[in-house]
Amino acid sequence: MEGDFVQGAKMIGAGLAMIGTIGAGAGIGIVVSGAVQAMGRNPDFSGTIQTNMILGIAFAEAVAIYCLVVALLLLFAV
Amino acid sequence: MEQSRKWWRFGVNRWFVLLFIVLNVIAVSAYPPLRPHIQLPAEALTEQPLFIFPLVNAPVYLTNTLVATLIGDILLLLIGFGVWRAVGSGQMVPRGLSGAVEAFIEVLYNLTESTAGKWAKRIFPYFATITLLVLVLNWMELIPGVDSIGFFNERHIENPFECSFVQLPLGAVGITGASNECVKGVIPFVRATATDLNFTLALALIAVVMVQVIGVRAQGLSYFSKFLNVKTFFTKPVFGVIDFGVGILELVSEFSKIFSFAFRLFGNIFAGSVLLFVIGTLVPVFAQSGVLMLEFFVGAIQAVVFGLLTMTFMAQATQSHGGEGHEESH
Description:
Shape of chain A: rod-shaped
Number of strands of chain A: 0
Strand content of chain B: under 5%
Number of helices of chain A: 3
Number of strands of chain B: 4
CATH superfamily of chain A: F1F0 ATP synthase subunit C
Structural class of chain A: mainly alpha
Helix content of chain B: 55-70%
CATH topology of chain A: F1FO ATP Synthase
Oligomer: heterodimer
Strand order of the largest sheet of chain B: 1-2
Structural class of chain B: mainly alpha
CATH architecture of chain A: Up-down Bundle
Mean pLDDT of chain A: 87
Protein backbone atom coordinates (compact mmCIF):
# COMPACT_ATOMS: atom_id res chain seq x y z
CA MET A 1 0.00 0.00 0.00
CA GLU A 2 2.71 2.41 0.99
CA GLY A 3 4.78 1.34 -1.99
CA ASP A 4 1.88 2.17 -4.28
CA PHE A 5 1.65 5.62 -2.74
CA VAL A 6 5.36 6.23 -3.27
CA GLN A 7 5.10 4.97 -6.85
CA GLY A 8 2.19 7.30 -7.55
CA ALA A 9 4.03 10.24 -6.01
CA LYS A 10 7.03 9.46 -8.21
CA MET A 11 4.89 9.48 -11.32
CA ILE A 12 3.22 12.74 -10.36
CA GLY A 13 6.63 14.24 -9.69
CA ALA A 14 7.90 13.11 -13.07
CA GLY A 15 4.88 14.69 -14.72
CA LEU A 16 5.43 17.93 -12.82
CA ALA A 17 9.08 17.96 -13.81
CA MET A 18 8.13 17.92 -17.45
CA ILE A 19 6.26 21.23 -17.09
CA GLY A 20 9.60 22.92 -17.58
CA THR A 21 9.60 21.93 -21.23
CA ILE A 22 7.04 24.68 -21.93
CA GLY A 23 9.82 27.25 -21.81
CA ALA A 24 12.07 25.24 -24.09
CA GLY A 25 9.26 24.82 -26.59
CA ALA A 26 8.57 28.55 -26.67
CA GLY A 27 12.29 29.28 -26.90
CA ILE A 28 12.86 26.94 -29.83
CA GLY A 29 9.83 28.43 -31.57
CA ILE A 30 11.24 31.94 -31.21
CA VAL A 31 14.69 30.86 -32.40
CA VAL A 32 13.37 29.11 -35.48
CA SER A 33 10.96 31.90 -36.38
CA GLY A 34 13.79 34.44 -36.22
CA ALA A 35 16.09 32.21 -38.25
CA VAL A 36 13.49 31.53 -40.93
CA GLN A 37 12.74 35.23 -41.26
CA ALA A 38 16.43 35.97 -41.59
CA MET A 39 16.79 33.28 -44.23
CA GLY A 40 13.85 34.75 -46.10
CA ARG A 41 15.46 38.20 -46.05
CA ASN A 42 18.85 37.09 -47.30
CA PRO A 43 18.96 33.50 -48.54
CA ASP A 44 22.68 33.76 -49.32
CA PHE A 45 23.55 33.45 -45.64
CA SER A 46 21.19 30.58 -44.95
CA GLY A 47 24.08 28.21 -44.23
CA THR A 48 25.53 30.39 -41.48
CA ILE A 49 22.11 31.16 -40.09
CA GLN A 50 21.24 27.50 -40.01
CA THR A 51 24.37 26.60 -38.07
CA ASN A 52 23.70 29.29 -35.50
CA MET A 53 20.06 28.30 -35.34
CA ILE A 54 20.94 24.69 -34.54
CA LEU A 55 23.35 25.92 -31.88
CA GLY A 56 20.63 28.07 -30.30
CA ILE A 57 18.13 25.25 -30.49
CA ALA A 58 20.61 22.98 -28.73
CA PHE A 59 20.98 25.49 -25.91
CA ALA A 60 17.23 25.89 -25.52
CA GLU A 61 16.66 22.20 -25.83
CA ALA A 62 19.19 21.47 -23.10
CA VAL A 63 16.76 22.89 -20.54
CA ALA A 64 14.03 20.56 -21.72
CA ILE A 65 16.48 17.69 -21.57
CA TYR A 66 17.30 18.54 -17.95
CA CYS A 67 13.59 18.25 -17.16
CA LEU A 68 13.49 14.97 -19.00
CA VAL A 69 16.50 13.66 -17.10
CA VAL A 70 14.90 14.63 -13.79
CA ALA A 71 11.70 12.87 -14.81
CA LEU A 72 13.56 9.76 -15.93
CA LEU A 73 15.59 9.70 -12.73
CA LEU A 74 12.39 9.92 -10.69
CA LEU A 75 10.81 7.11 -12.67
CA PHE A 76 13.68 4.67 -12.99
CA ALA A 77 16.48 5.49 -10.60
CA VAL A 78 15.25 6.88 -7.28
CA MET B 1 8.94 9.20 -66.74
CA GLU B 2 5.82 7.11 -67.05
CA GLN B 3 7.90 4.00 -67.41
CA SER B 4 10.01 4.66 -64.33
CA ARG B 5 7.04 5.45 -62.17
CA LYS B 6 5.37 2.25 -63.28
CA TRP B 7 8.49 0.30 -62.42
CA TRP B 8 8.53 1.81 -58.99
CA ARG B 9 4.90 1.11 -58.41
CA PHE B 10 5.29 -2.57 -59.14
CA GLY B 11 8.54 -3.02 -57.29
CA VAL B 12 9.13 -6.01 -55.09
CA ASN B 13 10.37 -4.22 -52.02
CA ARG B 14 6.97 -3.42 -50.65
CA TRP B 15 6.01 -7.08 -50.79
CA PHE B 16 9.02 -7.80 -48.64
CA VAL B 17 7.82 -5.11 -46.22
CA LEU B 18 4.36 -6.66 -46.20
CA LEU B 19 5.84 -10.10 -45.66
CA PHE B 20 7.84 -8.85 -42.70
CA ILE B 21 4.78 -7.17 -41.19
CA VAL B 22 2.81 -10.41 -41.48
CA LEU B 23 5.67 -12.36 -39.94
CA ASN B 24 5.82 -9.74 -37.21
CA VAL B 25 2.12 -10.18 -36.44
CA ILE B 26 2.52 -13.96 -36.27
CA ALA B 27 5.58 -13.70 -34.04
CA VAL B 28 3.91 -11.25 -31.70
CA SER B 29 0.79 -13.38 -31.34
CA ALA B 30 2.98 -16.38 -30.56
CA TYR B 31 5.28 -14.59 -28.11
CA PRO B 32 3.68 -11.45 -26.65
CA PRO B 33 6.22 -8.76 -25.79
CA LEU B 34 7.53 -8.40 -22.28
CA ARG B 35 7.07 -5.29 -20.30
CA PRO B 36 10.56 -3.85 -20.51
CA HIS B 37 12.66 -3.28 -17.45
CA ILE B 38 14.28 0.10 -17.81
CA GLN B 39 17.36 0.67 -15.76
CA LEU B 40 19.51 3.75 -15.70
CA PRO B 41 23.02 2.37 -14.99
CA ALA B 42 24.48 0.01 -17.52
CA GLU B 43 24.00 -3.68 -16.78
CA ALA B 44 27.01 -5.81 -16.05
CA LEU B 45 27.41 -8.83 -18.31
CA THR B 46 29.71 -10.83 -16.06
CA GLU B 47 29.22 -11.70 -12.41
CA GLN B 48 32.86 -11.17 -11.55
CA PRO B 49 34.38 -7.75 -12.08
CA LEU B 50 37.00 -7.50 -14.81
CA PHE B 51 39.51 -5.93 -12.46
CA ILE B 52 39.56 -3.79 -9.35
CA PHE B 53 40.49 -0.23 -10.10
CA PRO B 54 43.58 0.27 -7.95
CA LEU B 55 43.37 3.75 -6.43
CA VAL B 56 39.74 4.03 -5.41
CA ASN B 57 39.26 0.27 -4.99
CA ALA B 58 36.22 0.21 -7.27
CA PRO B 59 35.33 -2.93 -9.22
CA VAL B 60 35.10 -2.47 -12.99
CA TYR B 61 32.58 -4.70 -14.72
CA LEU B 62 32.20 -5.56 -18.37
CA THR B 63 28.99 -3.64 -19.01
CA ASN B 64 26.93 -3.79 -22.15
CA THR B 65 27.61 -0.14 -22.97
CA LEU B 66 31.33 -0.92 -22.77
CA VAL B 67 30.80 -3.66 -25.36
CA ALA B 68 28.99 -1.15 -27.57
CA THR B 69 31.85 1.31 -27.21
CA LEU B 70 34.39 -1.33 -28.23
CA ILE B 71 32.31 -2.33 -31.27
CA GLY B 72 31.97 1.32 -32.25
CA ASP B 73 35.72 1.80 -31.93
CA ILE B 74 36.37 -1.18 -34.15
CA LEU B 75 33.89 0.14 -36.74
CA LEU B 76 35.62 3.53 -36.71
CA LEU B 77 39.02 1.91 -37.09
CA LEU B 78 37.76 -0.16 -40.01
CA ILE B 79 36.34 2.94 -41.69
CA GLY B 80 39.63 4.73 -41.12
CA PHE B 81 41.58 1.81 -42.55
CA GLY B 82 39.34 1.71 -45.63
CA VAL B 83 39.76 5.43 -46.22
CA TRP B 84 43.53 5.12 -45.70
CA ARG B 85 43.72 2.40 -48.34
CA ALA B 86 41.55 4.38 -50.73
CA VAL B 87 43.81 7.41 -50.32
CA GLY B 88 46.93 5.29 -50.75
CA SER B 89 45.67 3.67 -53.94
CA GLY B 90 46.36 6.85 -55.87
CA GLN B 91 42.87 7.73 -57.07
CA MET B 92 42.30 11.45 -57.11
CA VAL B 93 38.53 11.12 -56.66
CA PRO B 94 37.68 8.70 -53.87
CA ARG B 95 34.59 6.59 -54.37
CA GLY B 96 32.02 4.93 -52.22
CA LEU B 97 32.48 5.05 -48.49
CA SER B 98 35.74 6.97 -48.55
CA GLY B 99 34.13 9.59 -50.78
CA ALA B 100 31.31 10.00 -48.29
CA VAL B 101 33.79 10.28 -45.43
CA GLU B 102 35.79 12.84 -47.39
CA ALA B 103 32.70 14.96 -48.02
CA PHE B 104 31.71 14.77 -44.36
CA ILE B 105 35.19 15.71 -43.14
CA GLU B 106 35.33 18.57 -45.61
CA VAL B 107 32.05 20.00 -44.35
CA LEU B 108 33.33 19.78 -40.78
CA TYR B 109 36.64 21.41 -41.69
CA ASN B 110 35.02 24.30 -43.53
CA LEU B 111 32.80 24.87 -40.52
CA THR B 112 35.84 24.92 -38.23
CA GLU B 113 37.73 27.26 -40.50
CA SER B 114 34.87 29.75 -40.71
CA THR B 115 34.57 29.82 -36.92
CA ALA B 116 38.11 29.44 -35.61
CA GLY B 117 40.20 31.05 -38.33
CA LYS B 118 43.87 30.18 -38.07
CA TRP B 119 43.36 27.88 -35.11
CA ALA B 120 41.30 25.52 -37.24
CA LYS B 121 44.14 23.01 -37.62
CA ARG B 122 44.51 22.64 -33.84
CA ILE B 123 40.80 22.54 -33.10
CA PHE B 124 39.60 20.38 -35.96
CA PRO B 125 40.89 16.98 -34.65
CA TYR B 126 38.88 17.25 -31.43
CA PHE B 127 35.77 18.35 -33.29
CA ALA B 128 35.99 15.57 -35.88
CA THR B 129 36.88 12.86 -33.37
CA ILE B 130 34.02 13.68 -31.03
CA THR B 131 31.52 14.03 -33.86
CA LEU B 132 32.53 10.79 -35.60
CA LEU B 133 32.66 8.76 -32.38
CA VAL B 134 29.31 9.97 -31.09
CA LEU B 135 27.74 9.61 -34.52
CA VAL B 136 28.83 5.99 -34.93
CA LEU B 137 27.86 5.11 -31.35
CA ASN B 138 24.46 6.76 -31.69
CA TRP B 139 23.67 5.09 -34.99
CA MET B 140 24.59 1.69 -33.58
CA GLU B 141 21.26 1.90 -31.77
CA LEU B 142 19.56 1.45 -35.16
CA ILE B 143 21.15 -1.95 -35.82
CA PRO B 144 18.62 -4.74 -35.16
CA GLY B 145 19.59 -6.72 -32.08
CA VAL B 146 21.24 -3.87 -30.24
CA ASP B 147 19.20 -3.22 -27.08
CA SER B 148 17.07 -6.30 -27.70
CA ILE B 149 19.17 -9.49 -27.80
CA GLY B 150 20.63 -10.56 -24.51
CA PHE B 151 20.40 -12.73 -21.41
CA PHE B 152 16.90 -13.51 -20.31
CA ASN B 153 16.83 -12.97 -16.58
CA GLU B 154 13.93 -14.84 -15.07
CA ARG B 155 14.62 -15.10 -11.41
CA HIS B 156 12.13 -14.09 -8.76
CA ILE B 157 11.95 -11.03 -6.63
CA GLU B 158 11.59 -13.09 -3.47
CA ASN B 159 15.16 -14.39 -3.59
CA PRO B 160 17.35 -11.41 -4.09
CA PHE B 161 20.52 -13.41 -3.60
CA GLU B 162 19.89 -15.67 -6.54
CA CYS B 163 20.19 -12.97 -9.12
CA SER B 164 23.57 -11.45 -9.38
CA PHE B 165 23.25 -10.14 -12.90
CA VAL B 166 21.25 -7.07 -12.05
CA GLN B 167 23.64 -5.87 -9.44
CA LEU B 168 25.05 -2.49 -10.05
CA PRO B 169 28.29 -1.90 -11.78
CA LEU B 170 29.86 1.47 -11.02
CA GLY B 171 26.90 3.61 -10.09
CA ALA B 172 26.93 6.48 -12.51
CA VAL B 173 28.20 9.47 -10.50
CA GLY B 174 26.45 8.69 -7.30
CA ILE B 175 23.13 7.82 -8.87
CA THR B 176 22.34 4.43 -7.50
CA GLY B 177 19.91 2.34 -9.47
CA ALA B 178 16.84 0.55 -8.22
CA SER B 179 18.09 -2.94 -8.47
CA ASN B 180 18.57 -4.66 -5.18
CA GLU B 181 15.58 -6.74 -6.16
CA CYS B 182 15.45 -9.04 -9.10
CA VAL B 183 13.46 -8.32 -12.19
CA LYS B 184 12.33 -10.35 -15.12
CA GLY B 185 13.59 -9.05 -18.38
CA VAL B 186 16.21 -9.03 -21.04
CA ILE B 187 19.69 -7.77 -20.29
CA PRO B 188 20.98 -6.83 -23.73
CA PHE B 189 24.49 -7.75 -24.78
CA VAL B 190 24.91 -4.41 -26.49
CA ARG B 191 23.24 -1.22 -25.36
CA ALA B 192 23.60 2.22 -26.92
CA THR B 193 26.66 3.80 -25.35
CA ALA B 194 25.26 7.26 -24.76
CA THR B 195 22.63 5.77 -22.41
CA ASP B 196 25.46 5.42 -19.90
CA LEU B 197 26.09 8.61 -17.96
CA ASN B 198 29.71 7.57 -17.42
CA PHE B 199 30.45 7.81 -21.13
CA THR B 200 28.84 11.20 -21.72
CA LEU B 201 30.38 12.65 -18.56
CA ALA B 202 33.83 11.42 -19.56
CA LEU B 203 33.45 12.89 -23.04
CA ALA B 204 32.24 16.20 -21.59
CA LEU B 205 35.20 16.30 -19.20
CA ILE B 206 37.61 15.67 -22.07
CA ALA B 207 35.96 18.38 -24.16
CA VAL B 208 35.97 21.05 -21.43
CA VAL B 209 39.52 20.25 -20.28
CA MET B 210 40.77 20.45 -23.85
CA VAL B 211 39.03 23.81 -24.20
CA GLN B 212 41.19 25.09 -21.34
CA VAL B 213 44.31 23.54 -22.90
CA ILE B 214 43.60 25.22 -26.23
CA GLY B 215 42.99 28.50 -24.43
CA VAL B 216 46.33 28.29 -22.60
CA ARG B 217 48.13 27.41 -25.83
CA ALA B 218 46.60 30.39 -27.57
CA GLN B 219 47.03 33.04 -24.89
CA GLY B 220 49.48 31.66 -22.39
CA LEU B 221 48.80 32.17 -18.72
CA SER B 222 46.81 35.32 -19.43
CA TYR B 223 44.00 32.97 -20.41
CA PHE B 224 43.22 32.50 -16.72
CA SER B 225 42.69 36.22 -16.25
CA LYS B 226 39.29 35.51 -17.73
CA PHE B 227 38.40 33.69 -14.53
CA LEU B 228 40.37 35.62 -11.92
CA ASN B 229 40.00 39.11 -13.22
CA VAL B 230 42.05 41.43 -10.94
CA LYS B 231 43.37 43.69 -13.70
CA THR B 232 40.79 46.42 -13.12
CA PHE B 233 40.16 45.66 -9.47
CA PHE B 234 42.21 48.56 -8.11
CA THR B 235 42.08 50.98 -11.03
CA LYS B 236 38.34 51.30 -11.51
CA PRO B 237 36.42 51.78 -8.25
CA VAL B 238 33.12 49.99 -8.88
CA PHE B 239 33.48 48.31 -12.23
CA GLY B 240 36.58 46.46 -11.09
CA VAL B 241 34.51 44.58 -8.56
CA ILE B 242 31.89 43.87 -11.19
CA ASP B 243 34.59 42.56 -13.53
CA PHE B 244 35.83 40.29 -10.77
CA GLY B 245 32.29 38.98 -10.25
CA VAL B 246 31.95 38.35 -13.97
CA GLY B 247 35.16 36.33 -13.86
CA ILE B 248 33.72 34.17 -11.07
CA LEU B 249 30.60 33.67 -13.16
CA GLU B 250 32.79 32.57 -16.09
CA LEU B 251 34.38 30.00 -13.82
CA VAL B 252 30.97 28.70 -12.75
CA SER B 253 29.76 28.55 -16.33
CA GLU B 254 32.82 26.51 -17.25
CA PHE B 255 31.73 23.86 -14.75
CA SER B 256 28.13 24.02 -15.84
CA LYS B 257 29.29 23.33 -19.38
CA ILE B 258 30.40 19.87 -18.28
CA PHE B 259 26.97 18.96 -16.97
CA SER B 260 25.24 20.61 -19.89
CA PHE B 261 27.27 18.54 -22.36
CA ALA B 262 26.85 15.31 -20.43
CA PHE B 263 23.13 15.57 -19.76
CA ARG B 264 22.21 16.80 -23.23
CA LEU B 265 23.67 13.77 -24.99
CA PHE B 266 22.61 11.33 -22.27
CA GLY B 267 19.06 12.69 -22.03
CA ASN B 268 18.42 12.62 -25.74
CA ILE B 269 19.71 9.13 -26.36
CA PHE B 270 18.30 7.59 -23.17
CA ALA B 271 14.89 9.12 -23.82
CA GLY B 272 15.06 7.76 -27.36
CA SER B 273 15.78 4.24 -26.20
CA VAL B 274 13.04 4.41 -23.55
CA LEU B 275 10.67 5.57 -26.29
CA LEU B 276 11.75 2.62 -28.45
CA PHE B 277 11.12 0.18 -25.59
CA VAL B 278 7.71 1.59 -24.76
CA ILE B 279 6.52 1.80 -28.37
CA GLY B 280 7.82 -1.71 -28.96
CA THR B 281 5.76 -2.99 -26.06
CA LEU B 282 2.57 -1.07 -26.76
CA VAL B 283 2.44 -1.44 -30.54
CA PRO B 284 4.79 -4.30 -31.38
CA VAL B 285 4.04 -4.26 -35.10
CA PHE B 286 5.70 -1.74 -37.46
CA ALA B 287 5.25 1.33 -35.24
CA GLN B 288 8.85 1.22 -34.08
CA SER B 289 10.06 2.01 -37.58
CA GLY B 290 8.83 5.58 -37.33
CA VAL B 291 10.55 6.06 -33.99
CA LEU B 292 13.72 4.56 -35.45
CA MET B 293 13.67 7.22 -38.16
CA LEU B 294 13.32 9.88 -35.46
CA GLU B 295 16.25 8.32 -33.60
CA PHE B 296 18.32 8.46 -36.78
CA PHE B 297 17.93 12.24 -36.90
CA VAL B 298 18.31 12.73 -33.15
CA GLY B 299 21.52 10.73 -33.12
CA ALA B 300 23.01 12.71 -35.99
CA ILE B 301 21.96 16.09 -34.58
CA GLN B 302 23.26 15.34 -31.10
CA ALA B 303 26.61 14.14 -32.46
CA VAL B 304 27.01 17.29 -34.54
CA VAL B 305 25.84 19.54 -31.70
CA PHE B 306 28.30 18.00 -29.23
CA GLY B 307 31.19 18.50 -31.62
CA LEU B 308 30.01 21.93 -32.76
CA LEU B 309 29.69 23.25 -29.23
CA THR B 310 33.15 21.94 -28.35
CA MET B 311 34.53 23.63 -31.44
CA THR B 312 32.77 26.90 -30.67
CA PHE B 313 34.00 26.95 -27.07
CA MET B 314 37.54 26.21 -28.26
CA ALA B 315 37.34 29.02 -30.82
CA GLN B 316 36.12 31.37 -28.08
CA ALA B 317 38.96 30.32 -25.81
CA THR B 318 41.54 31.27 -28.43
CA GLN B 319 40.29 34.83 -28.50
CA SER B 320 41.29 37.07 -25.64
CA HIS B 321 38.51 38.61 -23.61
CA GLY B 322 40.44 41.59 -22.33
CA GLY B 323 39.37 45.11 -23.16
CA GLU B 324 35.95 46.53 -23.69
CA GLY B 325 35.01 45.61 -27.23
CA HIS B 326 35.26 42.11 -28.64
CA GLU B 327 38.53 41.70 -30.41
CA GLU B 328 38.53 40.10 -33.79
CA SER B 329 40.41 36.87 -34.10
CA HIS B 330 44.01 37.78 -34.61
